[in-house]
Structure prediction request, 1178 residues.
Amino acid sequence: MPEADLTDRKLRERAVAAAQGKCPFDLLIKNARILDMVTGRERQADIGIVGALIASVHSVDRTTEAVQYFDAKGAFALPGLIDTHMHIESSMITPQEYAAAVVPTGVTTVVWDPHEFANVCGVAGVDYAIATARDLPLRILTLAPTCVPSAPGFEQCGGDFDPDTIAGLLSRPEVHGAAELMTMQPLLEGDARVSGIVDAARKSGKRICGHARGLADGALAAYAAAGVETDHELTSAADLIARLEAGMTVELRVSHRYLLPEFAAALLDLGHLPQTVTLCTDDVFPDELLNQGGMPELVRLLISHGLPAAWVYQAATFNAASKIERKDLGLIAPGRRADFMLLNTLSQVCPEYVFSDGCLIAENGALTEVLKTPQIPNALCQTMQLTPLQSTDFEIKATGQEAQIATLSQPRFPVWGARNCLVKENIVVLPPDLVRMAVINRYGAGTPARVAVLENWGFWRGAFASSVSHDSHNLTVFGCDPQEMAVAANAVCDLDGGLVVVENGGVVASLSLPIAGLVSVNNLETVAKNFANIRKAMDELVDWSPPLLVFKALFGASLVCNAGPRLSDVGLVDPFNGTILKSCVVDVP
Amino acid sequence: MPEADLTDRKLRERAVAAAQGKCPFDLLIKNARILDMVTGRERQADIGIVGALIASVHSVDRTTEAVQYFDAKGAFALPGLIDTHMHIESSMITPQEYAAAVVPTGVTTVVWDPHEFANVCGVAGVDYAIATARDLPLRILTLAPTCVPSAPGFEQCGGDFDPDTIAGLLSRPEVHGAAELMTMQPLLEGDARVSGIVDAARKSGKRICGHARGLADGALAAYAAAGVETDHELTSAADLIARLEAGMTVELRVSHRYLLPEFAAALLDLGHLPQTVTLCTDDVFPDELLNQGGMPELVRLLISHGLPAAWVYQAATFNAASKIERKDLGLIAPGRRADFMLLNTLSQVCPEYVFSDGCLIAENGALTEVLKTPQIPNALCQTMQLTPLQSTDFEIKATGQEAQIATLSQPRFPVWGARNCLVKENIVVLPPDLVRMAVINRYGAGTPARVAVLENWGFWRGAFASSVSHDSHNLTVFGCDPQEMAVAANAVCDLDGGLVVVENGGVVASLSLPIAGLVSVNNLETVAKNFANIRKAMDELVDWSPPLLVFKALFGASLVCNAGPRLSDVGLVDPFNGTILKSCVVDVP
Prediction:
């Protein structure tokens, strides 16, 4: 639903009168326990609400009148949580389903980078995000994706956002700012397109969000000097401190939970919570969203790692509101928007009640209103534009008896490796510890499947294919057997996009994602169940080895904008070095 | 000088290159000691600057090239101080002189409410503020005065800012926000004019600054619910906590230094510095500005009262920048504006060097460039529009033998008092412990002098007259002898405005303030010396008794917008109760 206008004069005049007891509040929350996000202290208070506005937070001893009363029964009152960086698409459900999932957990605001929809569908993906955000009980601040594609020249996707596109998107009032600038390397090298994109973002006067994966020292300074304000790609406590010192706003994320203990320790060591620390989810899989939630899980984990609850909630509310430049949000205080939750336990974010714009919007884990069935625009449908694949598409061609193969060694943080392999009948024979990865353009380029060889990815039995593959979301297939890989790939196309697991030559698990090849039309429960089945099936195929070799790594293996060699639809690429190899066969030894 | 444009693409591209060592910095500050305003920690660092931008803050071990080098010799580097609420007029010098005084003390940004000029000269006063701010090495963010006059209907001044005036001012890009809303009482009562002014401010989307003197509980909530964001009128630690809990930004001010120990204790008790705490000067007299400075004195005092230096500087820099919504300011970090100072001792703000927009602007206590002599517009000259006064103007007329007089009892926080006095020849005879105060309209109203009787203001010998008298700045005269009061009043008119002390029938000290009757054309040293002479002469006339009966109380005695009865040019007024008495003679007992 559209936000209530807090500049309305009558509303404010009523709030001024009600705060003084000259007229009744519309709603009075009695007997709340405020955990004050400014002082860090707790106090008993009643919250008087007029329209969408908090008019008064006052002592429970004061008698005030209201049209409607609501007994908080001593529950904690906390501002609605703000997720400062996320992609709804990663949860593989529609924004409607997403709102239905997170609002009851106390999340009332998310900053959505519809980067995945934009990579698949171009500006139509952003239009969809903006349009769908209008009618939800969740406040969605939509960003303009800045990296479509994420590594221009090193991958192809379904959109092409040049500086003019970005300027156009940022001129729209519904667009909150520029989304994570993943094109770090071209920016640092003075690439004209990326420099122009950042220039358009600076001139818009809106926020410029970042993705500073692996940047340090001069590179990090250069990135911040360009005007990029935030980062969520921290991989160590040293990263965290470096970004705080660089004046950046950090977005601690739930998606990399193994890092949270060291982040918590580093903040405890500082002795205070900097105002530049906020929380985000980034990417949350459907089963995780259903079972643990995103923001609630992050809050729970950070508290369990020793951070004071007041710090954690402050990061998720007041700090976030300040940094996203929404001074109406983030506090339970007069003059602010009435967005808050009532919950009994700080260490577990399971609010009994969630209010937004002064209205009860969720109760005991469910929205108070059923949302309309979403309309999906045609531009987001039937996005798998490629012809059926055959096992030969996944073979690696070579001549002679033996070939040197350039490998991608290690999941998540790939480095170049090399292996010598036998060649039989002009086909490379891979030893059983090597896994094949293939990426096939799904935007009608008609280019052949590119095949890479992965080292240290464990032993695989079967194949996995996905139309979700950050960030270009080309069809990506993993496996050892080319035949099984072809079966998996074609099954994904038959679904109009999705995830498929093949074992012993046949499909054993699948999830249909017909909206842009990223998102299901089904509800979260169904998607989560199917996704959990995929995960379980994959557990049978691969011996995962955390924190690097994990299921999640499959979806980021083609994330070309990050450091290190990667496979994209144009070949084996290393944008940081300018490398493009169409084949992994580098030499006959 | 106009601010450098940080959205300039070439500038940013050079900064990105320089941060990586691909081209030289314009300026490299070597061997600085950063007190980090985010982490609170100290570290050695070099600061690389390109144009007006900080491009890099990096380890002193890293070798980087620059066109120009500057050795900080281990001095602390701190962001330029930001004064979040002040009136230049209170220092009785021109903005040029003010800049020359404060910039060398490390103040690079002030948020100026030209409320005094506006009260005397109307919109022309604001125009002057905006125009004069353009050419200074001090960043002046000009606010739109919202209370001209401060108590409509209870005083008359030289301007009349209705909602349309405010909307017009706020539509100007040079106007940063709406200045302190002193019209608390009419706002709380729903007065149409004040409600319209706040409505215009809210609709502008700009900041709304406050003045919540004495507000608590429902009244404070109502004030915040109207959208007012800040307050500097704290009179106790309880006030401080109440405002923090109300989500307001507090501006701790140097002008009420006796309150600082309890503010410091309250913050220490919180255990952290809320991001909503900033520092300001509000009103600083010329001799104090010269001798102690405003912001530097406040920083020194707060540290001396036990606050960690990192907290105090954070309040004055990063917190302030966040709350005035200037994300280019307040940090020494890449991508921020190069506004900073180098100083050797944190507990005394005596910077050796001050930089702004990447240029050295002050060195060892003085600006590096001589400022142009200011042009004073005609609208600000010859503002004493009244005819010569006679001793009879200061007499209190009554009939009969005895009269009951309504008195203003107690300086600073006046309350109604009453005294019975003898009447001789239709003139009230005051006992020697009572002091006369008179206010005479100086904007051509032609109304008679209004006379009040002050209790608990000590024993006076002689008279004092001033055209500086908050906030309407009508001619205000204090004394016991009507003849001496007339001499003082006429001397102020002869000066075209100013301050005059009369003793034994003759002028013993005077300060000419011909610019709007508020500001001198002389330099700070001269003004401070003359002002100190006034102060000294007044010390001879009055036995001051701090904290209430102090010299400063003379200038605020007519501040009608604050609670309690006051004397204005229309009579004895109490706007909170709606009282207007044209004479202090209330009854024949």
Q: What stands out?
A: Residues 524-541 of chain A form the longest helix (18 residues). Residues 162 and 534 of chain A are 37 Å apart (CA to CA). Chain A touches chain B through 73 residues (CB under 8 Å). Chain A has a mean pLDDT of 96.
